[in-house]
Design brief:
The structure holds 2 protein chains of 2 kinds. By secondary structure, chain A is an alpha+beta fold. The longest helix of chain A is centred in the N-terminal third of the chain and has 13 residues. Chain A starts with a helix and ends in a 14-residue tail after the last helix. Chain B is of the alpha/beta class. Helix content of chain B is 38%, strand content 14%. In chain B, the strands form 3 sheets. Chain B has a 7-stranded mixed sheet, with helices on both faces. A 3-stranded antiparallel sheet of chain B has the order 9-10-12. In chain B, strands 1-11 form a two-stranded parallel ribbon. Chain B starts with a strand and ends with a helix. The chains are: A alpha+beta, B alpha/beta.
């Protein structure tokens, strides 16, 4: 997520879908323009998150495996 | 200290519901991190509180996306963001004859510095027809007040919005007096930018306002700086709200506003306006046959603009103040609107009823004004 507001919006979407998650700051090396946020969730929620992404319910997102 | 009788709610509402101060104090004590700066627990909590305000405001004004609710310092700031950020140089715009300086001054800047031409439409008679007559091929925007700050005139924003939307004209609305009192639906009224203060009808503290933008409007920022996002970019982030929120936001004020929004939602905007109007009308009725009292405001509502023959507005306000009554004299930052109402050079006295006024306040005002009239 490029902004904190987008991250909060996405977190609410995930929680409503039953995926427990937390907002994290992304490592500066992982973001092209710096200061971006991500959502950390357990692997068991990955499929549901993909589904939400596919339905366009998350404005932006790249799934990064492990590390968070 | 003598108990005050406060009737200057159009300037700022007072007192606030106790929950407003309580939430602000809780914020300062418990969770006042810097919102959007990092993801530690306090920064996150502050960010989530800001998001709550956006959600509540989006619900109240029927905006489908909370991220299009931008936090500003006040209505003037929001209007500057909208007017300077959306209106392109050389275009033609329309404003009403009731505008406040928060619109008149940025518009004057555009006129002087950016070659924007400005036409003023009258709010007397058929407003839609008056607007139609002033529209031009190159009209790009219409900026208007929703509810006047000196008279009870309310502009038909839904009808105006439809007229403009069909022609692709940007619609900017100043809801300084109406937010919290009137029901406003930004989608139905096709409003591109709805700007309001937090400290008037929304019952929040001073220092925060809201500007709600439509999907088709993305203003150019007028202030640049840190946003906590995309920090390597040398321009502001492309998406709302970050694009228009440079610098640290006033989290305590936002949480106070959040409590104010809850209070209004609970009481209902219709009920608040009804009671304010009822009290104001009762006060006015006491003086309507007194030839020494001149009324300028039109229609029913929470405002009464008046003067006492032979006294300047400042003198009347001072005599009321000596009896503990707070009202505002002068031009109320709306010289053009005063001209439209034919008030004298030094303006008039404005009594403005608010959500917290009681019948007892009304009685005290009536007694105080009668005392002045007898002397």
């Amino acid at each position: 997520m490029k902004t904190m507001t987008a991250a909060i919006k996405a977190k609410k979407t995930l929680i409503a879908a039953g995926v427990d998650c937390e907002i994290v700051s992304l490592d500066r090396n992982m973001t092209k323009n710096g200061c971006s946020y991500g959502l950390a969730f357990s692997c068991s929620g990955a499929q549901r998150v993909e589904l939400l992404r596919g339905k366009g319910k998350l404005s932006y997102g790249e799934m990064i495996g492990g590390g968070y | 200290m003598r108990e005050l009788c406060y009737f200057d709610n159009a300037a700022t509402t007072f007192p606030k519901p106790p929950e407003v101060a309580e939430e602000m104090a809780r914020c300062i004590r418990e969770y006042c991190g810097n919102p959007g700066r990092g993801s530690h627990s306090l920064a996150l909590k502050a960010s989530e509180k800001l998001y709550e305000v956006r959600e509540k405001a989006a619900r109240m004004f029927s905006c489908s996306a909370p991220d299009r609710v931008v936090l500003t310092m006040n209505a003037t700031h929001g209007l500057n963001v909208a007017i300077l950020g959306l209106i392109s140089p050389g275009s033609h715009i329309l404003i009403s004859d009731l505008e406040h300086n928060s619109v008149l001054r940025p518009v004057e800047y555009l006129k002087r510095e950016k070659g924007v031409s400005v036409s003023v439409f009258s709010t007397k008679g058929n407003i839609l027809e008056n607007i139609r007559k002033k529209l031009r091929e190159d009209t790009k925007a219409l900026v208007c007040i929703h509810s006047s700050n000196i008279t009870n005139k309310v502009l038909p924003i839904e009808k105006i919005g439809r007229l403009l939307w069909m022609r692709g004209i940007i619609f900017i609305v100043d809801a300084s007096q109406s937010a919290g009192a009137h029901r406003i639906d930004v989608s139905r009224a096709h409003i591109d930018a709805l700007c309001m203060p937090g400290h008037k009808g929304l019952l929040g503290p001073q220092g925060i306002g809201l500007a709600i933008f439509s999907e088709r409007s993305l203003p150019n920022p007028i202030i640049s700086g840190g946003s906590g996002s995309l920090s390597r970019l040398l321009e502001m982030p492309p998406s709302l709200p970050d694009r228009l929120e440079a610098g640290t936001l006033p989290t305590p004020c936002a949480t106070g506003l959040s409590a104010g929004l809850d209070y209004i939602s609970e009481r209902g905007t219709g009920d608040i306006l009804f009671k304010e109007t009822e009290l104001c009308e009762r006060i006015k009725r006491n003086f309507m046959f007194d030839e020494r009292v001149m009324t300028y405001s039109e229609g029913k509502g929470p405002l009464w603009l008046f003067n006492i023959r032979g006294l300047s507005s400042q003198k009347t306000a001072q005599l009321l103040s000596e009896q503990g009554v707070c009202v505002r004299p002068g031009l109320h930052c709306a010289p053009m609107a005063h001209k439209a109402l034919n008030t004298p050079e030094d303006g008039a006295v404005r009594l403005s009823v608010g959500p917290m006024n009681t019948d007892n306040d009304g009685d005290r005002f009536i007694t105080a004004l009668n005392k002045i009239l007898k002397n």
